[in-house]
User: Which sequence fits this backbone?
């Protein structure tokens, strides 16, 4: 059973701080890694993807991947109350059309004023 | 610019009733997926379709059937609903695994 593990939280950070969200995965064959944001009662929204070891930055978001440690993280700089949501980590074992996305259970982030 | 559209948004069924959840995407994606989301369980894959004419089981397929009607549409059928199928159901589509998937707005299903 391929697994994706996340701490369920809640992770509470003050406004303006850096939020650090972590995810580990069990399948060494995983090739593509994604972070989704899900507001309460809404559908998941893709916010970041990363394929190679290292960092990838997009605005206030940075995704970090370490394949040797089977670890992927998401940093949110200058956290805002609007960032309060559940963040889902997802991985695929391939890159083609037959690849399936496996999700973690998500980490709930609370940004406090 | 609709993306992935699911119908209905809400549904209440009695135990033993059947129903079909509809999903359509207008992004010309090859792959389509059905997930269910339960509190504390995350998103679990029910069935997926890598291309028109093909379907495969996911993690929790029991009690469900699917049809990939054409490239745009992928339906999920509950033949005899059970209370354990009370959940939020999401349809998603993807051009390829490396590009991630895009989700519909979800169907909240309650089986009483």
Assistant:
């Amino acid at each position: 059973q391929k697994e994706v593990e996340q701490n369920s939280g809640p992770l509470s950070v003050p406004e303006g701080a850096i939020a650090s969200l972590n995810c580990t995965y069990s399948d060494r064959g995983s090739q593509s890694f994604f972070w989704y944001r899900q507001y309460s009662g809404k559908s998941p929204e893709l916010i970041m993807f990363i394929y190679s070891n290292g960092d990838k930055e997009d605005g206030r978001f940075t995704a970090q991947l370490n394949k040797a440690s089977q670890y992927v993280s998401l940093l949110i700089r200058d956290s805002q109350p609007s960032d309060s949501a559940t963040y889902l980590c997802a991985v695929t074992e391939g890159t083609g059309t037959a690849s399936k996305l496996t999700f973690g259970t998500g980490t709930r982030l609370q940004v406090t004023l | 610019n609709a993306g992935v559209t699911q119908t209905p948004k809400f549904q209440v069924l009695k135990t033993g009733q059947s129903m079909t959840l509809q999903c359509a995407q207008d992004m010309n994606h090859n792959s389509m997926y059905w997930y269910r989301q339960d509190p504390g369980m995350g998103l679990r894959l029910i069935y997926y379709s890598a291309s028109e004419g093909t379907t495969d089981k996911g993690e929790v397929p029991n009690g469900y059937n699917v049809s990939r009607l054409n490239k745009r549409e992928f339906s999920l059928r509950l033949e005899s609903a059970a209370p354990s199928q009370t959940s939020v159901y999401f349809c998603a589509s993807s051009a390829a695994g490396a590009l991630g998937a895009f989700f519909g707005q979800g169907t909240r299903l309650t089986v009483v």
Summary: Residues 4 and 25 of chain B are 4 Å apart (CA to CA). DSSP finds no helices and eleven strands in chain B. The interface with chain A takes residues 30-31, 33, 35, 40-45, 48, 50-51, 56, 58, 90, 92, 94-106 of chain B (CB under 8 Å).
